[in-house]
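Changelog note: in this version the structure field was regenerated for every chain. One regenerated record is shown below for reference.
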Amino acid sequence: MRKPPMSPRKKKTSASEPKLVVNVTFQGEEWDYDEVVSLAGHDFRLVRVGTSGDAEAAEKHVWRWSLSADAIAVSGIREARAAGHFTGDIDVFRKVKGTTTRVPVRDDSLFADVFQEWAIRRIQAQLPGYFTNARVVIVGGTTRQRTISVLREFTDNILFDEARDDIELPGTFKTNPVTATASELGELAWRLTPGIVKHQISGPAGWVSERIAHHAAHDADVIIGSFSELMRFGLPNLKGKAVITSAVSEDRLATLADLGADLVVDVTPQPFDVVVVPAVFEAMVAATLPKGQEVTTADLAEFIQRAELEPRLLWPNGPRRKSRFAFVIHPLSTEYFKQVEPLGLITNLPGMGQVVEKTMAYAPPFVYSHVTGVVSSTGDEVEGWLITVGGTPKEMLAHPPEFTYSRLLGAAELSRRLGAQIMGLGAFTKVVGDAGVTVARQAPLPVTTGNSYSASGALWAAHEAVRRLGIAETDANGIIHGKAMVVGASGAIGSVCARLLALASDEVWLVSPETAKLLQLKEDIERESPRATIHVATDPSVALSDMDVIVTATSAAGHKVLDIMKVKPGCVITDVARPLDLSAEDVARRPDVLVIESGEVELPGDVRMRNIGLPDGVVYACLAETIVLALEGRYENFTVGRNIEWEKVKEIYSLGLKHGMRLATISGVNGPYTEEDFDRVRTAALAARAGVDGRPVDSATENNATEELELKETS
């Protein structure tokens, strides 16, 4: 229950009495109080007097309390205006503040600047990357120029709900790629409006900016303003958003919690049982200084430190974080264009397929899908955008790498404006040129190719495929009691795959023409995984027919690296090379062998996004890496270039498990394998191992039998 302020009395004479600080506010009387508190080694009597926008009453209160107070705080005019209590001009506030010179009369000109800026920097320090490219909507006029300048260190995506002549506007409207043109028109109209008119009417820019802000607020990551301004604005659902405001009471926090706010930042410290505003702290500092001494930033800094004041970060619905990502995709062939109208109509015309393919290679990047509903098992959430660049692999290879770089940098700029904090490269975009190095160096946000999780996912899929086939022996710990081979083990991906297989199998063969690299890799693996027996070979044929698992990870660019006809029936082959080492024709020749291209990942949550050729909620591992990094708040160039770090492969796998990622599908040349596919391969493999008459056959006999069968079927 509020306490009515006591009447002014004569100024005290005893130094032991509390310093009297009175807050005369244009806001209402419902928060009025009269309390004695202690802070920074001083005792204070704090009195709040609300006037509900009555300027004449405010002036009288300032005069009366000046007879006894040590300092007076005048506040609340912008909040009162937002609440409808006051419709006058800011000059009225200046007049009230200048009522007396008998005692210091303070507003929040120093304190609010410091604490609004500190709140921004504190969040960015405690939650690295939180404001990076964040979509920010600023409501009303209580947010300071200094605060906006600090926000611009992290993001250009800032919109105002009303045009402001006290803010430098270039760039502030030009943030949302959808609304940029309309807002530029509003900005031009505002700049051409005489200053006196700006204070009387909202003006064209005000009309435009308010509507843009309302539209943007639904997608915003951060909304800033006083509580009264926020209520006047009409807040959308705040799930996934941070609200930066001031003087947050229990009731106000409950209101924001009901609206779903993830994070509420009170830029005004609240060390007492009553709610205070920034101007009160300035008045408290003034009250402790010798008479006539002006408050300086040094005085304020000393007071803040002695009082241990700090902005409050409140999580009304429990700690959680929402991050944002973008991922670049592209058409793999002209077949894609046939599915997209009106391109499909044109592509199907005789001779127009190549024309469309060449034309789309020059098209600017665009958003193919908005991705929502990805929620980690930790409670954190991400949203993202799949961004399409128009070039097929054929067109990318027909141009120098710089052609694709420019398209990817265009996609990166679009990603930044959408609010993404990290961007992933998909399909052929991560292969062209230097595999993401140049793009990562020049892009306005961090970049990852996703190859670390792709390598992990491929081996994850291979291990699961061995288990599901049930031919090779595995134990309760998932160890494959058999032999594995990595062809291309000296390469970046191959060496990672070798290390992974050494953890999950008894015997590993490392194959590559680069003998010295293999010998060093063998030594490294034996030091890391002493349980596995490691062999080195320059030709896979020396042990090919004995392998239960084979990984091909070469850079052979389509050249034949192994003879699939010499592989043991029931062998699981994982082809992680791009382009693939094994053709569809090779795979078709061995129905008793399981050939895997990739392992796809099931995302946690109720995922909503457009079709990418996989079951609902399932994505390619390279996209999953981008999402995992966003969930973890790791906005960094995680995997770029052709060298994949073993430690990062292990790390991204662990982070994926932490956030609820699961192996969803195992895919071959014809798409995801079904249970029927596993049954078919198992049956064929067991039959091939047993032979036609039930006797085991050696590999040479088996291969001859297979070739004879193919000849019979052909004739």
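Spot check on this record: The longest helix spans residues 451-469. Confidence is low (pLDDT under 50) at residues 165-205, 692-715.
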